[in-house]
Amino acid sequence: MLTNLEHLGLAVQDLEAATALYTTLLGEPPYKREHVASEGVDTVFFKVGGSKIELLAGTTPESAITKYLAKKGEGIHHVAFEVADIRVTMARLREQGFVLLNKEPKRGADNKLVCFVHPKSAAGVLVELCQEIG
């Protein structure tokens, strides 16, 4: 079961410029910066009420974010939902015909296990499932 809108992921070309922009827009600095080597991204997180904004910038030419930016430009990359049990949610979605981009959950940013739902099976939106680790 999806329990909460966890965050919106925004793909950006220049992480420092976007961080400054969102700090001004939201009136608060980010609470976390993180490099996720396995995904080839640097991330910055802002809290907004009970949800978050995640800025993502690719760090390698092979990064999914780098490729996304080259194809579509800056903007909303994904919507992430918190789940109580990611494996149970993944099994339920598979049974209901959703295409998952991950066979098993993987470690993501912000101390989460994550899995992505293919946009073709989610009305054109890349959906991320997130479960807090620990």
Q: Which regions have little confidence, pLDDT < 50, spanning 5+ residues?
A: none
Number of separate strands: 8
Query: What's the overall average pLDDT, rounded?
Result: 96
Task: Give the count of structural domains.
Answer: 1
For the biggest sheet, the summary is: 8 strands, mixed
> Which percent bin holds the helix content?
10-25%
Oligomer: single chain
The proportion of strand residues reads: 35-45%
Q: At the first level of CATH, what is the class?
A: Alpha Beta
User: Any idea what the radius of gyration is?
Assistant: 15 Å
CATH superfamily assignment?
2,3-Dihydroxybiphenyl 1,2-Dioxygenase, domain 1
Order of secondary-structure elements: EHEEEHEHEEE
Annotated CATH architecture: Roll
Class by alpha and beta content: alpha+beta
Pick out its properties.
single chain, 134 residues, alpha+beta, 2,3-Dihydroxybiphenyl 1,2-Dioxygenase, domain 1, 8-stranded mixed sheet, 3 helices, 8 strands, 41% strand, MMCE/EMCE_epimerase, methylmalonyl-CoA epimerase activity, metal ion binding
Describe the structure in your own words.
Belongs to the methylmalonyl-CoA epimerase family. This is Methylmalonyl-CoA epimerase. One of its GO terms (molecular function) is methylmalonyl-CoA epimerase activity. InterPro entries: Glyas_Bleomycin-R_OHBP_Dase (IPR029068), MeMalonyl-CoA_epimerase (IPR017515), MMCE/EMCE_epimerase (IPR051785), VOC_core (IPR037523). It is an enzyme of class 5 (isomerase). The protein starts with a strand and ends with a strand. The model has no long low-confidence stretch (mean pLDDT 96). It is an alpha+beta fold. It has an eight-stranded mixed beta sheet with strand order 2-3-4-1-5-8-7-6. The protein is built from three helices and eight strands; from the N terminus they run E-H-E-E-E-H-E-H-E-E-E. It has one domain: Roll (2,3-Dihydroxybiphenyl 1,2-Dioxygenase, domain 1). Strand 6 and strand 7 form a beta hairpin.
